[in-house]
Amino acid sequence: MTTSFTCQQHVILSAPRADDLLEDGTIAGRNTELTNFLEQAGIDSRTSTAALEIDDVLQQWRRRVNKRELGSAALAAFGLAEEVDLAQLDVMMAIWAPASTFGSDDAEEEVMVSTVAARLRIDPSRASRLTSDLIARGLARRTVSQRDARRTLVELTERGTAIIEAVRQFKFLVLGEFLSGWSEKELALFVPLFERFVTWTEEAGDIGNNRFPDEINAISARLAQVPGAS
């Protein structure tokens, strides 16, 4: 597999010293240098090679996700593109979906604008604007919490719920068709492994500094020696 090498973190980690440039300036050469660096940090070549291949797949996945092809196709299929855009669709899903979809264990979690912001990891002011747009379009409405009357909640209207259900049905028709070509063994292996892989992102921010402080300090020192734009 040809491994892409576009992740910002990888660019930093593999940046060569000024006196230690590789003659081979290709992607393969930089990946070899990165593999050697990781091995010195205690990560064997088998694991680092797998990490590079996974990164390649994730880069391709991210580009496709950013294009939102499936969501766009669903809206187009039902003639909804003029009624709701993809950003609004995300907010509608954040309002409608059970908390477990977004990693929460609170099955009774009430949905406020702040909940939408947290679920989508967007600025609260943006979540507020998008929610207000949905309310103005008749796709969502404000309501009062049954637990605390001072708390304003948000929920989908009948029309908003119908749109979400239609988009989800479209999505799972497509995904189901794709996965129907997988064997039972492949599915049984993939699902738990994918769940396991996804969970590491919750801890990824702390792993570098906690697990590899010496390497991070060395990279920082080397980076500081490279002059910035004047």
CATH architecture of the domain at 81-178: Orthogonal Bundle
Strand order of the largest sheet: 1-2
In the predicted model, the low-confidence regions spanning at least 5 consecutive residues are: 1-25
Estimated helix fraction: 55-70%
Name of the CATH superfamily of the domain at 81-178:
Winged helix-like DNA-binding domain superfamily/Winged helix DNA-binding domain
Largest sheet: 2 strands, antiparallel
Mean pLDDT: 83
Instruction: Kindly estimate the percentage of residues that lie in beta strands according to DSSP.
Output: under 5%
Shape: globular
* Tally of separate helices: 11
Just give the CATH class of the domain at 81-178: Mainly Alpha
Structural class: mainly alpha
Radius of gyration: 23 Å
Q: How many β-strand stretches?
A: 2
Please write the string of helix (H) and strand (E) elements: HHHHHHHEEHHHH
Molecular structure report:
By secondary structure, this protein is mainly alpha-helical. It has a domain at 81-178: Winged helix-like DNA-binding domain superfamily/Winged helix DNA-binding domain (Arc Repressor Mutant, subunit A, Orthogonal Bundle), CATH 1.10.10.10. It contains eleven helices and two strands, in the order H-H-H-H-H-H-H-E-E-H-H-H-H. Strand 1 and strand 2 (152-156) form a beta hairpin. The chain is globular, with a radius of gyration of 23 Å. 13% of the residues are buried. The model is unreliable at 1-25 (pLDDT under 50).
